[in-house]
């Protein structure tokens, strides 16, 4: 971007930090176009060119000395068509228009020729400057700029080193953004996501504890959402559950994704009661669970036949179940929801003491 003089706006720097934050997740980097090996070369299908004569004998069309056959249809097919093109005269110094071409011309004709050749000289100079710049650059950088989607895989076995390089680059972008545009909550959250996606737990906590007070800013819902996702990916469930109280103590109202990550983690761990309890807390706060985060919980409730009005019917059930199974599930779901409403509760999971 520096080579093309792209203006470094605050939004652009924030988006760059988000790009490096996405690159901290191995599953995302593995699916990048530059990390997918090209397909193996396909063996060409070779078909012999054969022809039969009147006697039924095979005629080899690739025999030595065979002459090509021309017709009126392909006549002149390979001739060059230079209509509308100008054959410019280039001298040895690379300049368009030699001295011999302008001899015998009047001053008016020379001026007209100069006006005609000026754009070509400018274009030639630009191409020469670009070629000199490419020669001064590193060959790997040149190939990367020419073909950014070229197969250039990241060493996933040493992914920690790749993450540290991204953190160092993001730190430089963050420092430049602070110097040029000043601090903002969006900028600090973008820089924090680079650390949280890389699961640098202590460094992320230190960043929140130092950078936000340093710039007289307060963490918001996006800050706590990044921390929640980091703790759950690192399987620090106790620390993630304690983060709910910390957010409320700081006066921050967590958003739906903040609780949604926790619900999805409980569902993946087959903790149905904890997932539904968290979902009930979301219902009291007026938050809706994202369908992507409700996928595992839907499968878990279907497995244990525990239905609740907090979770809508699976939209794929009509395609994944038979008509009899769908009708049976809907009757059982309606029965459990009616029983829960009569008892003044949102869901019911029997405990061992109740059995």
Descriptive account of the structure:
There is one protein chain. This protein has 355 residues and is mostly helical. It has a domain at 1-32 and 154-252. It has 15 helices and 2 strands. It has helices at residues 10-22, 26-30, 99-102, 107-136, 139-146, 159-181, 185-197, 201-214, 221-233, 237-249, 256-268, 272-284, 295-304, 317-320, 323-343, and strands at 50-52, 58-60. The chain has a two-stranded antiparallel ribbon. Strand 1 and strand 2 form a beta hairpin. The longest helix has 30 residues, at 107-136. It starts with 9 loop residues before the first helix and ends in a 12-residue tail after the last helix. 17% of the residues are buried. Mean pLDDT is 83; it is low at 76-92.
What's this model, at a glance?
The chain is an all-alpha fold and 355 residues long. The chain has a domain at 1-32 and 154-252.
User: Largest beta sheet, briefly?
Assistant: 2 strands, antiparallel
SS-derived structural category: mainly alpha
Order of helices and strands: HHEEHHHHHHHHHHHHH
| Number of helical stretches of at least 4 residues | 15
| Residues in helix, % | 55-70%
Q: For the largest beta sheet, what order do the strands appear in spatially? A: 1-2
Organism: Saprolegnia parasitica (strain CBS 223.65)
InterPro entries: PPR_rpt, TPR-like_helical_dom_sf
PPR repeats: 220-254, 255-289
Keywords: Repeat
């Amino acid at each position: 971007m520096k080579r093309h003089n792209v203006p470094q706006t605050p939004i652009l720097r924030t988006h760059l930090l988000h790009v490096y934050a996405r690159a901290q997740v191995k599953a995302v980097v593995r699916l990048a176009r530059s990390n997918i090996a090209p397909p193996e070369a396909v063996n060409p299908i070779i078909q012999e060119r054969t022809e039969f004569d009147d006697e039924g004998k095979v005629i080899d069309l690739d025999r030595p000395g065979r002459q090509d056959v021309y017709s009126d249809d392909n006549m002149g097919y390979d001739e060059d068509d230079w209509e509308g093109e100008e054959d410019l005269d280039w001298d040895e110094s690379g300049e368009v228009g030699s001295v011999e071409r302008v001899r015998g011309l009047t001053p008016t004709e020379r001026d007209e020729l100069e006006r005609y050749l000026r754009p070509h000289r400018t274009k030639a100079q630009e191409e020469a400057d670009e070629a000199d710049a490419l020669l001064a650059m590193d060959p790997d950088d040149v190939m990367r700029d020419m073909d950014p989607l070229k197969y250039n895989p990241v060493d996933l076995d040493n992914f920690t080193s790749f993450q540290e390089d991204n953190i160092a680059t993001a730190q430089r972008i963050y420092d430049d953004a602070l110097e040029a545009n000043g601090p903002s909550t969006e900028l600090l959250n973008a820089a924090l996501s680079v650390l949280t996606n890389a699961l640098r737990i202590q460094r992320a906590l230190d960043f929140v504890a130092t950078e936000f007070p340093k710039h007289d800013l307060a963490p918001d819902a996006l800050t706590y959402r990044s921390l929640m996702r980091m703790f759950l990916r690192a399987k620090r469930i106790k620390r993630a559950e304690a983060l709910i109280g910390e957010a409320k103590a700081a006066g921050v109202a967590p958003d739906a994704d903040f609780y949604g990550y926790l619900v999805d983690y409980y569902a993946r761990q087959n903790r149905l009661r904890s997932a539904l309890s968290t979902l009930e807390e979301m219902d009291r706060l007026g938050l809706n669970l994202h369908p992507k985060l409700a996928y595992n919980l839907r499968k878990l409730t279907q497995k244990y036949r525990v239905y609740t009005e907090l979770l809508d019917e699976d939209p794929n059930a009509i395609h994944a179940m038979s008509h009899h199974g769908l009708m049976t599930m809907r009757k059982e779901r309606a029965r459990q929801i009616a029983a829960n409403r009569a008892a003044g509760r949102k869901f019911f999971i029997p405990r061992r003491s109740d059995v």
